[in-house]
Design brief:
This protein is mainly alpha-helical and 536 residues long. The chain has two domains: 6-97 and 128-234 and 258-285 and 481-535, no CATH class; 286-421, no CATH class. The chain has 21 helices and no strands. The two termini are 16 Å apart.
Length: 536
């Protein structure tokens, strides 16, 4: 069961009704039962068993760490045992084919791919295992650090890691960020909300969450699905489509991935909001980024924050990196030594980030080596960059310079996404080579007609992208001005009155619903399960 299915629509409606009727005391318990049901419907008994193992070991491990008190060795031993057990389960399902993929890439590098015979094992991974593993392990590490208290209640830990809107595509939650709204009582029994709801749910949350869900569906069904047709056509026959076609395919995939993954995050955040739970944002207009490092601070922010806090910083404090830092500072100076140490840590962290996406070298190269190299290069080049600006007198904030930086960053990111979308390194490098052929056949009527979309679909896609750009532009203007776009009803309703707020919400929801229903791409072969990041 996925977000874009009639089954999920019915499932969510039942959850809302039960939480509305259940009132203050029953809401957390109902959410727990709903999350278990969602996991079972999405992945069956295997997914329930795998999640149960992770939740139980983390719950028991956190209690064991807290009871160990000041016994540092015992605390560390419990932490490592639980970490290794959960990572071993993750590896058993996600990386069983990694050795085979590695041998296949080596065969390609040595020119013996034609004689290489290997069939990947079909191992069905438990639903959402990558996301809930990080969520639960983050809680365990925070208990170890003393940031959070170990929860005595198993079902609380299980609901935190397996809350159904977030578990399949994120955002990756932190205990301190969601526990209050997840386990809180909601509206008091008998207390009506300003818009007419009673106990258990806040009507403002419901309507604002609905608007967010509809916006996510618009991005997915109106934009991402149409872009997916172009991407699948070009990448599916990349030896025939060359030059301008491959460039367009790479650009379309960058926007497809953003609309698809961003749409999934919007639906997750909106569904949680309707149930009274606040999840963290996962995107902040990433295509406005002026550098690769800034892009990854705006893209999949909860994943980047998880690796920064739980991998990067602890890694820099290890003896090996402290020793490396000492050597680098003595040989290259304090500032340069610090940059070199940070660059080395970046390569380790981004290798793990690439591996998290899957046991294929296209993920590891596209998400690890490529971006780690670019960010390390920018970090090490900071003194030369500062000197360049000083000598040339270029205004870093000039609109033309800012636009150039954003275009450059987008091009670099789109190149990295070629690896992400390709089935093998040979395919990725073949596409990159084909881009430079100079073939311009795209810019003909026959060229566009060959990409699988009708003229009407191209028009809808252009309009959808224009709307996406306009919304991103408004959000970015508010962000750079130091203001937040109102995310809750209290800000929107201030000074307007509840009736005006209701009218505005209704109008936006109606417009989005109309756009999704009328313009959504439901063509032949449409697969409601095709959220890209659901595979991870």
């Amino acid at each position: 069961m996925t977000f874009v299915s009639y089954e999920f629509l019915l499932f969510m409606a039942v959850c809302l009704v039960l939480c509305r009727l259940g009132g203050r005391g029953l809401r957390p318990g109902l959410l727990f039962c709903a999350s278990l049901a969602f996991l079972w419907l999405s992945g069956g008994v295997l997914s329930l068993a795998a999640y149960g193992f992770s939740a139980f070991t983390v719950w028991a491990g956190a209690l064991g760490i807290e009871r160990a008190g000041s016994a540092a060795g015992k605390r560390r031993g419990i932490l490592l045992a639980v970490l290794l057990a959960n990572l071993a389960v993750l590896a058993a399902f996600k990386y069983v084919n990694f050795p085979g993929y590695t041998l296949r890439e080596l065969a390609w590098l040595t020119g013996s791919l034609d004689s290489f015979a290997w069939t990947p094992l079909e191992v069905p991974a438990p639903a959402a295992i990558s996301f809930y593993t990080l969520t639960l392990l983050g809680y365990l590490i925070e208990v170890y650090w003393g940031v959070e208290l170990a929860q005595k209640s198993f079902w609380r830990v299980a609901l935190f890691g397996g809350f159904f809107p977030q578990m399949s595509t994120g955002p990756i939650a932190r205990w301190g960020e969601v526990s209050e709204s997840l386990f809180g009582p909601g509206r008091k029994a008998g207390e009506a909300s300003p818009l007419g709801f009673g106990a258990g749910l806040d009507a403002e949350d419901v309507f604002f969450g609905l608007r967010r869900v509809l916006w996510g569906l618009f991005k997915k069904l109106v934009i991402a699905e149409r872009l997916g047709v172009v991407v699948d056509t070009v990448y599916g026959d990349y030896t025939t489509y060359t030059g301008s076609f491959l460039v367009l395919g790479a650009v379309c995939f960058a926007f497809q991935l953003y609309a698809d993954f961003g749409g999934a995050a919007d639906i997750a955040i909106g569904c949680a909001r309707m149930l009274g739970v606040r999840l963290s944002e996962n995107f902040a207009q990433p295509f406005y980024s002026r550098s690769i490092a800034e892009f990854w601070r705006r893209w999949h922010m909860t994943l980047g924050g998880w690796f920064k806090d739980f991998v990067m910083y602890p890694l820099l404090r290890t003896r090996a990196f402290e020793r490396l830092g000492s050597v680098c500072r003595k040989r290259f100076g304090k500032k340069a030594g610090k940059r070199l140490t940070t660059a080395a840590a970046l390569f380790v962290v981004w290798f793990l980030l690439g591996l998290w996406h899957g046991g294929m070298w296209t993920f590891i190269i596209g998400s690890w080596l490529y971006h780690a190299f670019l960010m390390s290069l920018a970090l090490l080049a900071e003194p030369w960059t500062a000197g360049f600006y000083k000598k040339t007198g270029i205004d870093r904030e000039h609109p033309l310079w800012t636009a150039w930086q954003r275009v450059r960053t987008f091009v670099l990111v789109a190149v990295g996404f070629v690896f992400f979308r390709s089935d093998s390194l040979g395919m990725a490098f073949g596409i990159l080579r084909g881009m430079g052929s100079g073939e311009m056949g795209l810019f003909t009527r026959e060229g566009f007609d060959s990409l699988g979309l009708s003229a009407a679909d191209w028009g809808v896609l252009a309009a959808g992208l224009a709307i996406l750009w306009a919304v991103s532009f408004v959000k970015e203007r508010a962000r750079t001005a130091g203001a937040d776009v109102p995310a809750d009803s209290s800000a929107a309703a201030a000074g307007t009155g509840v009736s005006v707020c209701w009218q505005r919400i209704s109008a936006v929801c109606a417009a989005l619903a109309f756009g999704v229903l009328i313009l959504g791409f439901y063509g032949q072969g449409y697969d409601a399960a095709a959220f890209i990041y659901a595979a991870f």
